[in-house]
Design brief:
Helix content: 25-40%
Structural class: alpha+beta
Shape: globular
Number of helices: 9
Radius of gyration: 17 Å
Distance between the termini: 31 Å
Number of strands: 7
Largest sheet: 3 strands, antiparallel
Length: about 220
Amino acid sequence: MYKSVTDEGRRHDQTRRDRGVVNAPKTSAAGMDSRDEQSVCARCAGLGPTCCEISPGQEEACFPVSPLERQRISDHVSLSRGAFVEEKNSRAFVTNLHRLFPRERRVVDALFPAAGTHLRLSTDVRGRCRFLTGTGCALPNEVRPYYCRLFPFWVVSGKLAVFAPGGCLACREGRSVAGMLESLHVRAEFLLDLHCRLRLAWGFPPEEGMAFVTPALARFHP
């Protein structure tokens, strides 16, 4: 499902041991070089399909959007544009979150009870994200949901990892986790911090294994 940055990174160009922290010439608020991000992601959007698309009928498996993330997007665009959809906490949705947080299944079940709902980004009839354009995401990087900003990276047991979707141009060109970090000019430390922010926004404790306080069930209601 994903590769470890530790395992892959060791095999990728031993002459540069510090590739987890890339000294980019100029970084955006998202920790990326905006020119390189546009180069990879814009080209990927032009080629398609991208990580911003899902097969029609599988929308229930989309990641949730927290109130914090919703507000940030709402401050940038009008809600009248249909940016969000209320979705039931279906079995497929919860199962997908179990895969993302395999050691925190009880936390997932408490945050997303079977009778509850959550918000997700809306998609068109082809399964394309509402904000996907021919040159990538229409939202500024700092406005996007945390999951979008992290993808294709993720954190497993405190270590940086990466999903391996076949359609991801950054994965194909970077070839390894370390190579992707370099090509996207993104710092490993920044991604770890971003994952922590995602956890807090979604209602999880900052780190796996920390004490969890059950939130109000309406946390993800519109």
